[in-house]
Design a protein that fits this description.
The relative contact order is 0.10. The chain is α/β, with parallel strands linked by helices. The strands form two sheets. It has a ten-stranded mixed β-sheet with strand order 7-6-5-8-9-10-11-12-14-13, with helices on both faces. Strands 2-1-3-4 form a four-stranded antiparallel β-sheet, with no helix packed on it. It has seven helices and 14 strands. Helix 1 packs across helix 3 and helix 2 packs across helix 4. It has a domain of 193 residues: Vaccinia Virus protein VP39 (Rossmann fold), CATH 3.40.50.150.
């Protein structure tokens, strides 16, 4: 019988390489982090879009090394997110050794641990989780990692420390000013730009200069809404924008209230443009 590490190794190559050639560092991070340490004891509940949750029946952790969503708090629809989506998002925001990372919506810490592997001992991860139950679980799960700190509060409203990468795992109807302000020059923000209900996209925002932000859609996405980052009016604007034209046209984010004809959608103090970032 194959060892559990054999299953991790296969899973890591699959989820890190599903959307293209995988980075060996990303494969190694997925292969080294034990998913069973973060999702509770089995049998587990697996989310299906057609039938809701189904039970794994057995509690063998090797079953966790598939591209599936595992219920963390099934009664509230909170899951450990789809590994291949995270593989794609981590590949495009590219945390590097020594980076400072903010993880917003850390859940019980599985993807926080993968981020910690990617930045190494010279980097650090500040993991924000506003849900007390999840934050407490994350603290216990991540206590063995000296480069991780779990913060049991919102990661979208307070003044945040400067970061090379901001990795958001809860749906937002707009990029929060706190995230954009916290990005270092060259820093990358990736977050689910989604209506309160329904699908949106993972938007990658790169701060190229003090007031210059490139933006591009990395993949489709649907997430649990981010507390403090969702507005009903903006949700309706997004629904219309996604229907009106492809989000793949987006090339930049502007921080003002002066949209021009290139605007893909408009918010309060920000808009997305189909033009390249302004000089």
């Amino acid at each position: 019988m194959n060892s559990i590490q054999d299953f991790r190794n296969f899973y890591a190559r699959y989820v890190a390489g599903l959307y293209g050639r995988a980075d060996e560092r990303l494969i190694a991070a997925f292969a080294s982090v034990q998913r069973e340490h973060y999702v509770g004891t089995g049998p587990w509940k697996v989310w299906t879009f057609g039938s809701g949750y189904i039970d794994t029946v057995i509690d063998d952790p090797r079953i966790l090394y598939q591209d599936v969503l595992i219920g963390l708090v099934p009664a509230r629809g909170i899951n450990n997110g789809q590994p291949s989506l995270h593989g794609r998002c981590l590949a495009v925001c590219a945390p590097k050794s020594g980076d400072a990372v903010l993880h917003v919506g850390a859940g019980t810490g599985y993807y926080t641990a993968i981020l910690a592997e990617l930045v190494g001992s010279g980097g650090n991860v500040a993991a924000y989780e506003i849900d007390k139950e999840l934050a407490d679980r994350a603290r216990g799960n991540l206590s063995h990692l000296p480069n991780v700190k779990v913060i049991g509060t919102s990661g979208c409203e307070a003044t945040l420390p400067k970061a090379d990468v901001i990795y958001v795992n809860a749906g937002a109807t707009q990029p929060m000013p706190a995230w954009l302000d916290a990005l270092k020059i060259g820093g990358r923000l990736i977050f689910p730009l989604t209506p309160i209900k329904g699908h949106g996209c993972m938007l990658l925002v790169t701060r190229q200069a003090e007031a210059k932000y490139a933006a591009t859609a990395a993949s489709g996405a649907a997430f649990t809404p981010c507390v403090g980052a969702c507005e009903e009016a903006m949700s309706k604007v997004l629904v219309d924008a996604f229907k009106r034209q492809p989000v793949a046209l987006v090339k930049s984010l502007r921080r003002d209230n002066n949209p021009d004809a290139s605007a893909w959608c408009e918010g309060d103090g920000w808009w997305l443009s189909t033009n390249e970032p302004a000089a």
